[in-house]
Amino acid sequence: MKQVAKNYGKKEILKSLDFELQPGKIYGLLGRNGAGKSTLLNLLANRIFPTSGEILVDDQNVIDNAQALGKIYLMSEKNLYPASQSLEQLLRGTKLLYGKFNFQLAYDLAGEFELSLQQKFSKLSTGYRSIFKLIAALATPAQYLLLDEPTLGLDAHHRNLVYQAIMDDYLENHRTVVIATHLIDEIANLMEHVLIIDRGKLILDGETEDILANAHLVVGPAKDVAKYTAGFNIIGREALGRITGYYIYGPLDDQRILPDTVSIEQTDLQKLFIYLTNNQGGIGK
Amino acid sequence: MKQVAKNYGKKEILKSLDFELQPGKIYGLLGRNGAGKSTLLNLLANRIFPTSGEILVDDQNVIDNAQALGKIYLMSEKNLYPASQSLEQLLRGTKLLYGKFNFQLAYDLAGEFELSLQQKFSKLSTGYRSIFKLIAALATPAQYLLLDEPTLGLDAHHRNLVYQAIMDDYLENHRTVVIATHLIDEIANLMEHVLIIDRGKLILDGETEDILANAHLVVGPAKDVAKYTAGFNIIGREALGRITGYYIYGPLDDQRILPDTVSIEQTDLQKLFIYLTNNQGGIGK
Q: Which residues of B touch A160 (CB under 8 A)?
């Protein structure tokens, strides 16, 4: 995406997004409700068009480019399937669109998830709709899989099976996978790279490992913690009785002396995300 | 619910359910995808009818009973709203159905969630649909609130706001609330009572506190753990290197001597749920 913006009327949904997806990598696309995640994925899949800027797939513009689009599959939250067809028929239709289709994988996964393919899509629960859409996505030959909330409405067992299926596919096919999700803790280990968007802007774009190496929680008595972290990029504060914790993002200053009363702990992606996108102070107040 | 069963054709969705909801209590309704949670809630709200058995609200049959039904509000996963109306109009329609409606609360919550009520329901994302449906539910005067996946598609901030809104309403109005969800960890503290259904059967019906008092993890070397737990109700097993953990459900035997190598730990509702409903061995294999 090169300087991509998207407006609806006067409303700016995405503002000048600039980033690149590397081949064969799993991306986590994180953002709050309304941040612009689904709009971003719909742009990548050419279902909507940018107001300005350019979207290239392997150096080719995606707009009106069947070859480029054949490389991309978007599993979206919207349910676009015709109501009258069985799941089996829908899979055959997907094959027509993409040329190839891994029916064996689709049947195997349907078995694992206990999904009968003779049913109609419109009769499925939210959870089973997610399962079917994921199966269709994984069985296409697309080199870029865009998965918008792949675990929507799924129980913990099924969410685990979904993460396993994505990982198995990744190890076998080395595709580029973009996963948009609100269950950050659960996919933290799956993502190699993190993209965080907040109110239409890309506010973080980095390798998961590097990001976590820069995220810390400094814990101790309020006064000592405040003194030690002065000048650091403090993104959040929490208190538990007389103990205070400051979340900081950025490199630590090795020259500073850490008081005995203060300790530095790792923090996780979910906490980091919450504080980086906490526009209202909704959590941890 | 008295001996309620529900079939679709030859398929038994619910099998002889027998339970009672107490006034002024928060219930967690837990079950895997396809277990029958939504069917159960739709029966309670009289949107569908039981194949056999009886459903009473304050001792009155719900079928064709407007007074009894006015006491119940179901926030369902299905989106039943007419596409052409604004959210504001939909709220006015809800008032017509229920007589009273707390518009002040609805406006306050819409402000907290940053939801403009001038929009059309069909234009909302999955997350904002959940938010709107929850607002409509909390603003009705219904004494029984049935919430089917109230946090579907919501980010962590918004999920937290939802739990807070449910708790605030509960403290003020003392209604009976039934929450069906797959995010068990997050609502564990909110639920006073747990109902678990598995493949159409009610397999657990108890106070959260009592249930947790009976759920244990026994950890130690495999041989010692197996010996100590022999005869107990073992619902799951995990291993980490040479250390083994058995999940057991039921009272402990105080006569048994606990070896020094073995320790007994608390377990949480999510783990208990996973093992009680693990028909396929999908997790923790």
A: 282-283
Does an H or E element contain B148, and which?
Answer: strand B144-148
Sheet holding A193-198, edge to edge: A72-75, A144-148, A176-180, A26-31, A193-198, A201-207
pLDDT in tens, A44-63: 999 999 999 999 998 888 87
Domain spanning B2-207, CATH class: alpha beta
CA gyration radius, chain B = 21
Q: Residue B88's closest CA among B21, B139, B49?
A: B139
CB B233 within 8 A of CB B250: yes
C-alpha–C-alpha distance, residues B147 and B116, integer Å: 22
Task: Say if CB B114 and CB B155 are below 8 A apart.
Answer: no
Instruction: Give the residues across from A193 on adjacent strands.
Output: A27, A207
For residue B25, give the amino acid letter. K
What tens digit of pLDDT does each residue of B19-30 get?
999 999 999 999
Residue B258, min C-alpha distance to chain A (Å): 32
Residue among B33, B161, B273 whose CB faces A128 most closely: B33
Q: Could you tell me the two tokens for B205?
A: 């019906």
For residues A76-91, give the mean pLDDT.
86
Q: Which two tokens stand for residue B18?
A: 């027998």
How far B181 CA sits from the closest chain A CA (Å)?
Answer: 8
A38 close to A197: Cβ distance less than 8 angstroms: no
Q: What is the mean pLDDT of residues A178-188?
A: 94
Distance of CA A155 to the CA centre of its chain: 19
Chains A and B: how many Cβ contacts under 8 Å? 93
CB contact under 8 A, A33 and B155: yes
Distance, in angstroms, between A272 CA and closest chain B CA?
Answer: 12
Instruction: Domain ranges for chain A, please list them.
Output: 2-207, 214-276
Give the one of A152, A161, A184 whose C-beta lies nearest to B152's C-beta: A152
Residues 6+ apart with CB under 8 A from B234: B246, B247, B248
Apex A29 CA angle, B180 and A277, nearest 5: 80
- Tens digits of residue pLDDT in A237-283: 998 888 899 999 998 877 888 999 999 998 999 999 999 998 643 33
